[in-house]
């Protein structure tokens, strides 16, 4: 089955909102053999919506539209698509009662504009929205099939998974699927990783391999395009094992796994607890760890020691070390890690201190110089690296590398 996706929202075109809905649609539908052959984003304009939807229907006979189903005046998707199908809007009392019930649970009162969310194109199937107020709509007619979903990403994903995918899977009945798996790597450059992989594309054919660099590292995404589900899963499993073997210690997980999650899992298995001492990262390492549910079983706490006086008072970094080596030095990082381990009573600690810029660099220590220290098993180790990017990127990459160092102390290569 072939289908086009149309995402509606002026904010998408202005760049204020990233279009995550289109990516989610592509992933979920490919898994059931439905090909999204084109994606289009349009503004909250009736003519733009009508042109995009009618063109999509003419090409494939099926279109999935997100956005423009809310109660405000710029939410015109439903009205525009209904006109294309010559399906006038009619008030649906059951939808209205569902809207009122949701507002009651939230201890809020619905207003008159919310009644527009209970207007349903004649003949459309209502897709109940248990996660918001605007229901999804499944409308079929002479132009083809139009599926309308709210633009709020959380609501769109849930409706797509629970209401749309099962219906399309029944209709598609395709023997082949499109599926991908991802191996996540970090602390290795894309070019270096590609050299390490050699001619692996030939080994895993007919699967395809893509390198996806980002702030956290390089993801290796392998995709199967033309095989039945069982064969696809087997091929992908073999390819993932091969990719992990080639990437070695730089591979830390698969698919959506986060490096902080892997660190916490390894520490929990070893009965360790973690403390952090951060300067240039300003709490990013601790934030990454505490973002993982259940982290309190492993993570004890941390100190943001941005000023030298705080390094001395809170982490017992001596003035002599700071004067002799500077705040950005392996000696200071080691003292910070030791101080964090003592203060929080942990067996494992990580310290980060560096120059994130844009100012503060010198010829000896330019912007991007970051020093790290890890304490584990009673031993403290340190290293220095140059981190590329602007201030935000340097801090994010430094936090990622700090987590990588923790994982390597817990699980030596």
The parts where pLDDT drops under 50 for at least 5 residues are none
- According to DSSP, the number of beta strands is 17
Residue fraction in strands: 25-35%
Level-1 CATH class name of the largest domain: Alpha Beta
Average pLDDT, rounded to a whole number, is 94
Number of helices: 15
The portion of residues assigned to helices is 40-55%
CATH homology-level superfamily of the largest domain:
MoaB/Mog-like domain
Shape: elongated
Radius of gyration: 26 Å
Largest sheet, in brief, is:
6 strands, mixed
Alpha carbon gap, first and last residue: 45 Å
In total, how many domains does the architecture comprise?
A: 3
CATH architecture field of the largest domain:
3-Layer(aba) Sandwich
Strand order within the widest sheet? 2-1-3-8-7-6
The CATH topology assignment of the largest domain is Molybdenum Cofactor Biosythetic Enzyme, Chain A
Structural class: alpha/beta
Describe it for me?
The protein has helices spanning 10-14, 20-30, 46-60, 77-84, 93-105, 153-172, 190-197, 200-204, 229-247, 259-270, 284-290, 308-315, 319-325, 330-344, 391-410; strands spanning 2-8, 35-42, 62-66, 89-91, 119-121, 125-127, 136-141, 144-149, 177-185, 208-214, 217-227, 251-254, 274-278, 299-304, 348-354, 369-376, 379-386. It has 413 residues and is an alpha/beta fold. The chain folds into 3 domains: 2-172, Molybdenum Cofactor Biosythetic Enzyme, Chain A (3-Layer(aba) Sandwich), CATH 3.40.980; 177-254, Alpha-Beta Plaits; 259-410, Maf protein. α2 (20-30) packs parallel to α6 (153-172) and α10 (259-270) runs parallel beside α15 (391-410). The two termini are 45 Å apart.
């Amino acid at each position: 089955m072939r289908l086009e996706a149309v995402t509606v929202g002026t904010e998408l075109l202005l760049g204020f909102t990233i279009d995550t809905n289109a990516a989610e649609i592509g992933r979920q539908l490919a898994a059931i053999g439905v090909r999204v052959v084109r994606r289009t984003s349009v503004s909250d304009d009736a003519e733009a919506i009508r042109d995009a939807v009618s063109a999509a229907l003419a090409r494939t006979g099926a279109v999935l539209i997100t956005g423009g189903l809310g109660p405000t005046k710029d939410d015109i998707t439903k009205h525009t698509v209904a006109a294309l199908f010559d399906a006038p809007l009619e008030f649906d009392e059951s939808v209205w009662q569902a809207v009122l019930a949701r507002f009651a649970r939230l201890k809020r009162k619905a207003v008159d504009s919310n009644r527009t969310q209970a207007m349903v194109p004649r003949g459309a199937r209502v897709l109940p929205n248990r996660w918001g107020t605007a229901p999804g709509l499944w409308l079929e007619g002479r132009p083809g099939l139009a599926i309308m979903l709210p633009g709020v990403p959380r609501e769109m994903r849930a409706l797509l998974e629970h209401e749309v995918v099962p219906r399309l899977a029944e209709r598609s009945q395709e023997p082949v699927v499109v599926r991908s798996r991802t191996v996540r790597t970090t602390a290795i450059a894309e070019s270096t990783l590609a050299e390490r992989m050699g001619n692996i594309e030939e080994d895993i054919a007919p699967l395809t391999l893509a390198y996806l660099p980002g702030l956290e590292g390089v993801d290796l995404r392998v995709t199967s395009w033309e095989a039945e589900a069982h064969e696809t899963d087997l091929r992908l499993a073999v390819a993932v094992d091969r990719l992990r073997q080639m990437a070695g210690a730089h591979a830390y997980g698969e698919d959506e796994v986060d490096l902080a999650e892997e660190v916490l899992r390894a520490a929990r298995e070893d009965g360790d607890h973690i403390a952090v001492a951060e300067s240039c990262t300003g709490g990013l390492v601790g934030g990454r760890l505490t973002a993982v549910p259940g982290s309190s079983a492993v993570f004890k706490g941390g100190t943001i020691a941005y000023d030298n006086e705080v390094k001395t008072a809170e982490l017992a970094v001596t003035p002599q070390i700071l004067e002799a080596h500077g705040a950005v030095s392996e000696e200071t990082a080691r003292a910070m890690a030791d101080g964090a381990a003592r203060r929080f009573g942990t067996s494992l600690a990580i310290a980060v201190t560096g120059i994130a810029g844009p100012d503060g660099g010198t010829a000896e220590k330019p912007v991007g110089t970051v020093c790290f220290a890890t304490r584990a098993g009673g031993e403290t180790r340190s290293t220095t690296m140059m981190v590329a990017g602007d201030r935000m990127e340097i801090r994010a990459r430094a936090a990622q590398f700090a987590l990588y160092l923790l994982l390597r102390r817990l699980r030596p290569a």
